[in-house]
Amino acid sequence: MAKLIPISLSNLTNRIHFSYSPLTISFPSFNTTPNCSNNATNISRRLGLGFIALMASSVTAIPAEVANALDLKLIAPEQSLDEAESGIRRHAEALLQVRSLIESEAWKEAQKRLRSTSALLKQDLYTIIEYKPPAERPALRKLYSLLFNNVTRMDYAARDKDVGGVWESYKKMEMAISDILSRI
After folding, report:
1. pLDDT digit string, tens, across residues 109-122
2. For FRET with 132, which of 33, 97, 123, 157 sits at 20 to 30 Å CA-CA?
């Protein structure tokens, strides 16, 4: 069986050999060898070692979080039905509170609040839908889809500062939330 050796920068530099040989172009009427200095091999080695160091640091680096992006997580593995049911009304109310930001036309703040609260509501709704009997799921999934499609439309309308589009999406979102809460 092969012996595993831990990877370190010194092991890699000892095993990687950079070689350089000048290119020679020959034709019957044309002979040339490019003028290459010894610095070209040093640059290649530096670039190779820099690349190795960069790759080693990227493997061990902690991933950065994307700020204000839509969160695509659907269900928290540790979230129970009771937790989802207790949080759904609070998260739905928080999502509807975006109205005050829309009225004041604070578009960036409205987008940030919309994104952060919709992710929590999405998580709660998905958990509740998964715990419902199979016969009730299609109707709830349709309302779920309607709600979050309108959240996305409102986000895009707020980005474009389209007042009419924002209010239309808000009204549809409000109706979908009330339908969902009445069925749950």
Report:
1. 999 999 988 988 99
2. 97
Cβ pair 95, 122 in contact under 8 A? no
H or E stretch at 30 = strand 30-32
Q: Contact 173/95 with Cβ under 8 angstroms?
A: yes
Rounded-to-10 torsion of CA 72, 73, 75, 76: -160
Residue 11 confidence (pLDDT) above 60: no
Which letter, b or e, does each residue of 22-40 get, where b requires 16 or more Cβ atoms within 10 Å of its Cβ? eeeeeeeeeeeeeeeeeee
Domain count, the chain: 1
Q: Which residues, 6 or more positions from 50, have their beta carbon under 8 angstroms from its beta carbon?
A: none
CATH of the domain at 146: 1.20.120.290
The reply to whether 143 falls in a domain is: yes
Identify the pLDDT of residue 29.
55
Residue 96's pLDDT band, with cuts at 50, 70 and 90, is very high
Tell me the per-residue pLDDT of 51-84, one tens digit each, with 9 for 90 and over. Answer: 677 666 665 555 555 455 555 555 445 677 788 8
Record the tokens describing residue 71, joined without a space: 């969160």
d(CA 147, CA 170): 10
| DSSP-derived secondary structure letter, 132 | S
Query: What phi-psi label fits residue 27: left (phi over 0), alpha (psi between -120 and 50 degrees) or beta?
Result: beta
Residue 169 within any structural domain of the chain: yes
**DSSP label at 77?**
T
